[in-house]
Specification:
Distance between the termini: 82 Å
Order of helices and strands: HHHHEHEHEEHEHHEHE
Helix content: 55-70%
CATH architecture of the largest domain: 3-Layer(aba) Sandwich
Radius of gyration: 24 Å
CATH superfamily of the largest domain: P-loop containing nucleotide triphosphate hydrolases
CATH topology of the largest domain: Rossmann fold
Largest sheet: 7 strands, parallel
Shape: elongated
CATH class of the largest domain: Alpha Beta
Oligomer: single chain
Structural class: alpha/beta
Length: about 250
């Protein structure tokens, strides 16, 4: 019948589209991991695969209807939607990292608004330079900031307090920009790790976008890094974008 034929064509079309989507994600997984965490991609793959099985069962029910296939497609799709909802809620809870700057360090401000590169890889020195300002930190070592009650993002692939995957550069960028104001210094201590995970070019684009956005808000950006850990041309590119502090 025409109505049944049209229904079958629609079901086959949905199955083909979802199949193509799964293939694209699998083929370009590394590209997606630059903006999404591997865990989120993996969970999304589980959800899409289960949904694909549901669509397949729906097509089979239209072609070879049986007592089993009549309800199997609905059961599988319902499970997929239930699993997808759980993954979504779990992800939303995990990414709710509060880093609102609320505590100013004691002392007289030592830095004017701008973007700086502290060649001495000393977090204590960076915090001293940030005296009189509120601080947000992006760091591989959160303990010095935690002791002072300063907000931070911990660069790690391990779940933990204020942890964020180093591959999630867009998410990191958004959180830092969103929470900074003209009284804020954003300290980045962990560039070597970011470069290791993302490559220098991606991190440089991240830093220049962050720098421009923070300067528009009147905030300050302070990188803590030993330039000797970089290739000479990499260090030169950073020094073009950031004022060097040699102390």
């Amino acid at each position: 019948m025409p109505g049944e034929t049209l229904k079958l064509e629609i079901e086959v079309f949905k199955l083909i589209i979802l199949t193509m989507a799964i293939i694209v994600v699998a083929r370009y997984r590394k590209l997606f991991e630059t903006s999404l965490s591997p865990s989120l991609i993996r969970k999304g793959t589980y959800f899409a695969t289960l949904l694909w099985l549901g669509f397949l069962a729906d097509v089979m029910n239209d072609v070879y209807p049986t007592e089993l296939t009549k309800s199997l497609d609905d059961i599988i799709i319902s499970l997929a939607l239930l699993l997808g909802t759980y993954y979504l809620l779990d992800h939303m809870m995990r990414v709710r990292v509060k880093i609102e700057p609320s505590k100013a360090l004691k002392g007289t401000p030592l830095l004017q608004d701008g973007a700086y590169l502290l060649s001495n890889p000393d977090v204590e020195r960076a915090m001293h330079l940030s005296s009189g300002k509120k601080v947000i930190a992006l760091t591989r070592n959160p303990e010095p900031f935690r002791k002072r009650g300063l907000p931070y993002l911990w660069l790690t692939k391990v779940p933990g307090e204020n942890a964020i995957d180093p591959l999630r550069l867009p998410a990191i960028l958004h959180k830092l920009i969103e929470n900074a104001d003209r009284e804020t210094v954003v300290i980045i201590d962990g560039l070597e790790y970011l470069i290791l995970e993302n490559g220098f070019e991606s991190v440089l684009k991240f830093l220049t976008t962050l720098k421009d956005s923070l300067l528009l808000k009147g905030a300050t950006l302070l990188l803590v890094l030993d330039p000797n850990t970089l290739e000479p041309h990499q260090a030169a590119l950073l020094k073009k974008e950031f004022k060097s502090i040699e102390q």
